[in-house]
């Protein structure tokens, strides 16, 4: 199992809306395998395709013993109830900021056979579903922070060794 290199904040692929998967072939299967392998290490909850440099709508998750993936996911339901929950990102390492997320989320998409898949989550899984779907829309959790917190987060990120510079 070779881990794909992660992309970090500043890399344009992370701010670009991903294309839907339209071909379900060996390449798609390899991408899903890479995403599932990439979410296995301890401390990882989810991994979206753009985080490994692929502009397709696919993510994997591994939260509280529930592991899986969704191709072409769309959030179809969010609870009205929200909470502020500490959030981090593999593409923005070492930084954690409280982020407002819906307590419950439902995502629909398909699997490798192009069959419908629905994933429902509460609390941390709901956060993960929202976070990973955001990645596919070119949104980082930093974009959801209040203005002053976002300014501080961006300042901290730009000072890190991993920050992607052209």
From TrEMBL:
<dbReference type="GO" id="GO:0006412">
    <property type="term" value="P:translation"/>
</dbReference>
<keyword id="KW-0408">Iron</keyword>
<comment type="function">
    <text>Removes the formyl group from the N-terminal Met of newly synthesized proteins. Requires at least a dipeptide for an efficient rate of reaction. N-terminal L-methionine is a prerequisite for activity but the enzyme has broad specificity at other positions.</text>
</comment>
<feature type="binding site">
    <location>
        <position position="131"/>
    </location>
    <ligand>
        <name>Fe cation</name>
    </ligand>
</feature>
<dbReference type="GO" id="GO:0046872">
    <property type="term" value="F:metal ion binding"/>
</dbReference>
<feature type="binding site">
    <location>
        <position position="135"/>
    </location>
    <ligand>
        <name>Fe cation</name>
    </ligand>
</feature>
<protein>
    <recommendedName>
        <fullName>Peptide deformylase</fullName>
        <ecNumber>3.5.1.88</ecNumber>
    </recommendedName>
</protein>
<dbReference type="InterPro" id="IPR023635">
    <property type="entry name" value="Peptide_deformylase"/>
</dbReference>
<dbReference type="Pfam" id="PF01327">
    <property type="entry name" value="Pep_deformylase"/>
</dbReference>
<feature type="active site">
    <location>
        <position position="132"/>
    </location>
</feature>
<keyword id="KW-0648">Protein biosynthesis</keyword>
<keyword id="KW-0479">Metal-binding</keyword>
<dbReference type="GO" id="GO:0042586">
    <property type="term" value="F:peptide deformylase activity"/>
</dbReference>
<comment type="similarity">
    <text>Belongs to the polypeptide deformylase family.</text>
</comment>
<keyword id="KW-0378">Hydrolase</keyword>
<feature type="binding site">
    <location>
        <position position="89"/>
    </location>
    <ligand>
        <name>Fe cation</name>
    </ligand>
</feature>
<dbReference type="InterPro" id="IPR036821">
    <property type="entry name" value="Peptide_deformylase_sf"/>
</dbReference>
């Amino acid at each position: 199992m070779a881990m794909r290199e992660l992309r970090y904040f500043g890399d344009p692929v992370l701010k670009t809306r991903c294309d839907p998967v339209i071909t379900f072939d060996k390449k798609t299967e390899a991408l899903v395998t890479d995403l599932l392998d990439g979410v296995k290490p301890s401390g990882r909850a989810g991994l979206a395709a753009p985080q490994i440099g692929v502009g397709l709508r696919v993510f994997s998750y591994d939260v509280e013993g529930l592991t899986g993936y969704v191709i072409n996911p769309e959030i179809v339901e969010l609870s009205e109830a929200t909470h502020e929950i500490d959030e981090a990102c593999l593409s923005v390492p070492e930084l954690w900021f409280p982020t407002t997320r819906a307590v419950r989320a439902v995502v629909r998409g398909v699997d490798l056979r192009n069959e419908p898949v629905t994933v429902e989550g509460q609390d941390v899984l709901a956060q993960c579903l929202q976070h990973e779907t955001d990645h596919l829309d070119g949104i980082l959790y930093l974009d959801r922070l209040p203005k002053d917190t976002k300014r501080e987060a961006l300042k901290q990120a730009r000072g890190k060794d991993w920050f992607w510079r052209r």
